[in-house]
Structure formats: structure tokens, C-alpha cells
Amino acid sequence: MLILNRGRPSQSRSDPLLFSSRRVFLNGKPHVDFRKGLNTLFTRNALSMYLGIQENIYKRHFAAWMADPDPQAKEYMMPFRDLNMETSLRVFCGDYISEKGQKDISDHYWLITLALQLVNFPFALPGTKVYNAIKARKMTIKWFEHASAESKKRMAAGGEPNCLIDGWIKAMQDARAERENPDLGSDARRTLVRDFSDREIALAVLSFLFASQDAMSSGLTYLFQHVADQPELLRKVREEQYRLRGGQLDAPITLDLIDQMEYTRNVVKESLRIKPPVIMVPYTAHKAFKIDDNYTVPKGTMVIPSFWNSLHDPQAYPDPDKIIPERWMQGPDSPAQQHPRNWLVFGSGPHYCIGQQYALMHLTAVLAAASISMNWKHEITPTSNKVRVIAGIFPEDGARMKFSPRPAPSPTATPEEAAAA
Ligand code: HEM
Q: Which residue's CA is the nearest one to ligand 1's atom 41?
């Protein structure tokens, strides 16, 4: 744990040049109010809508990976990022962003990530990473403002919500109508009764992209790597998939189905625990608190706990460096369930990750879909298990993999036989 007396977390949370307008990093009551307005974006209804968008994107990316004619393994860290970027942009903005716009954002977003590396020239002079990142940010915000403006028109004309921005704008419009109609539903009541400008919506969506893209890419990269390195995990995931889906392997994944994927979900949880995408986050002590007999943290101090240590604490997670999905399935007396505060993958307190459910659903759905449609091999190199920090954490060798199609199992095979094939 790192303790910086009299730190100012509002400045330390991010590079102020890039993200000074990120409203989600407000504090106190304005932050609570703002988050209340965003809760409607991650309800079960909203997650169901996103899932429908996600699955088609996965299938397209899987098909491209399997079609690669090169028989050698290659680095997959960037293709995993691309899958996440397309998923995020379509989930957040639907079809309001053209294919070209999406490609531009995806290509340029990498410049923002590079600017967040620890060692960087700190001035925005032409050619520097910070300068490139500011340009990339401006272009991305323009697209998000466009998406918001188009969505406002479509929702006002009675269109059905197809993405996160639609859902937000519909909730805003319903909340506005509620002023005249007190019988409207509770979803509308939870939303702040105020109109957000296109710019405010664009900045919030940018903050979602920023908060999600690197963490999700790190999570996905390690997930593919972990299950390839431990085939027993993948075999059990497949067994669960074949059992839950019966003969209907092509039927769309639903949220109810995901709820039943207990083993698959716990592989995701363990993979995130072993390699947490975010390794530290700064917090402020709002009142003095005692660390031990020798030290009490004074009020106003910035405290940076190490998530890694909490997530590898043998008291909470015996045999902490091993992926053991069953540790989450052993009932309320198990060490993992007895130490819920150690589970810091998505942070803690009022700023805990707003996208947690969406992120877990996404990673579970990708693994579920991948396990039954593809086989994959991970080429282990001397640096596969070395960690490189680029906003999130990644394997130093970029995760070298080779994907191939997985034949459909025989209709008479049991889930065990199908998984073992
Ligand atoms: C595996 C994926 C993800 C991980 C590991 C992750 C992790 C985190 C962590 C550690 C925090 C800081 C929490 C704290 O201060 O205590 C955070 C905050 C945040 N995350 Fe995530 N995140 C992920 C995905 C996402 C996604 C998909 C979204 C959006 C759709 C998102 C949106 C946010 C936002 C907006 C915040 C700031 C919340 C606030 O300040 O109130 N994250 N996340």
C-alpha cells in the first residue's frame, strides 16, 4: 500500500490534459447524483439488449481468427483489443458511428493508451504521444456527439432503444415527461431529471471507453491464455456449455443462460483475480483511520492500495497463484466468500466500477461462445508469464495464439464426451 500525505486524488486519477471533463470522477454528492443517472444504463434490461449486439461481433472476429492461413501462432493482444473496441462502440453507440468512423476511433484510441504510459514527455507538442492523444480524443468526442444528436432525434420520434446512448436518452426523455405524468415507471424516476447535452453524453461515453477498453482487453487476453495453458479448465467450461445448451449450439446466448453458467463465470472471476487488469487505484481518506499501532492515516491523505496483494492473499484465496473456479462454488463458509473485501478487481466504495456486471457478462459470453466454436493453442514463450503494463497489464510476448474451427459434436455425445473430443 502506498500512502501519500495530502494527496489530491481529483488530479491524480487521470491526466488532466486528457480527461479533465470526466464527470464520473467527480466526488461527493455531485458524484452520487451523476451515478444515479447512469444506473439505468446497466440494468438487466439494458444488459440483455447489449448481449444481442455483442454475440454477432464475437462470431465475426472468431471467423477472421480461424481463417488466418498462417499455420504459425501470432500475437493476439491487438485482435483481442479490436474485438473489445468494436463491441464497446456498437454497445455504446449502436449504428450511429459508420464503419469508417469506428475504424478511425479504434486506430486512434491506441494513441490515447500510449499516452498513458508511465514514462512520457509531459507537454502536448506536435509529434509527442500526449499531442497525438489529444487529437485522437477530439476526433472520438466528435463521433460520440454525433451519435448523441442522432439518437435524440430518433428517440424523440418514438424509435426503440438499440444501444446504451439510446437507452440513456430515452430514460432522459421519459424523466422529462414524468414531470407532467407522475404515473411513469421507476426507471425514469431513477434518472436525473435534467437534460444532458450532446457534449456531456459524449464525454461520459468517452470515459466508459477509457475505463473499459484497456481493462477489458487485458482481461480477455489473459482469459484466452489461462484456459489454453490449463486445458482442464477449458474442458470443464465446454462440458458446462454442452450441458446447458443441449443440441442448440447456435441459439443466441441470453442473460438467463449466462446466469446458469456458474463454472464458466467463475473461470472468468479467477482469471481476473490472478491477473487483475487494474493493479492500483488512488483513494482519499475522508477521515483519519488506523493502519496499525504505529501508524494512523491522516484525513485527506491519498492511499493507493495494491489490488494485486489483496487478490493473492492466501487467507482469502488458499493456493493463491492457482486458478481454482471451485473456490467460488463452495458455499458461504469458504475462504473466498468469507473475505469479500479482498475481491478488489473492480475497486471498492462509491467509485467502484459501474461497468462491473457488463464486463463480467462480456467476458463470460466471449469464453462461452469461443469454447464451443474454436480450438486454440497458446505458444508459451520465455516472456508469456512476464507482465507488461500499458494502462492495463498484458503478457510481455503479446499472447501468441493459433485458432482453428471446433467441429460440432456428435448428436448422441454426452456433454462429457463432447467436451473431451
Ligand atoms: C474487466 C474489466 C474492468 C475492470 C477490471 C474495471 C476496473 C475498474 C476499477 C478498478 C475501477 C476503479 C474503482 C474504484 O475507484 O474503486 C473502475 C472504475 C470505473 N469503471 Fe471499470 N473496469 C472494467 C470495465 C469497465 C467497463 C466495461 C466500463 C463501462 C462500460 C467501466 C466503467 C468504469 C467507470 C465509469 C469507472 C469510474 C466509476 C466512478 O468513478 O464512479 N469499467 N473500473
A: 351
What phi and psi values does residue 245 have, to the nearest 5 degrees? -95, -10
With H, G, I as helix, E, B as strand and everything else as coil, classify residue 313: coil
353 is in an annotated binding site: yes
β-pairing, 74-75 with 302-304?
Answer: unpaired
Q: Specify the ligand 1 atom closest to the Cα of 164.
A: 30
Per-residue model confidence (pLDDT) at position 115: 63
Distance 219 CA to ligand 1 centre (A): 13
pLDDT of residue 7: 38
| pLDDT for residue 378 is more than 70 | yes
Q: Ligand 1 atom 17: the closest Cα is on which residue? A: 353
CA distances 246 to 34, 236, 415, Å, are 43, 15, 8
In order of their start, the domains of the chain are 2-11+25-420 (1.10.630.10)
Please identify which residue in the block is written with the cell numbers 432522459: 172
Probe ligand 1: pick from 84, 206, 343, 353, max atoms within 8 Å of CB? 353
Dihedral of CA atoms 15, 21, 24, 28 in degrees, nearest 10, equals 100
**29 pLDDT above the threshold of 70:** yes
Is the CA virtual torsion 291, 294, 300, 304 positive or negative?
Answer: negative
Query: What was the pLDDT predicted at 188?
Result: 53
Q: What is the mean pLDDT of residues 295-321?
A: 91
Q: How many CB atoms lie within 10 A of CB 415?
A: 17
- The residues, any chain, with a CB within 8 Å of residue 23's CB and separated by 6 or more, are 34, 200, 203, 204, 207
Average pLDDT, the chain: 85
Run of H or E including 283: strand 283-284
Q: Above 80 in pLDDT, residue 319?
A: yes
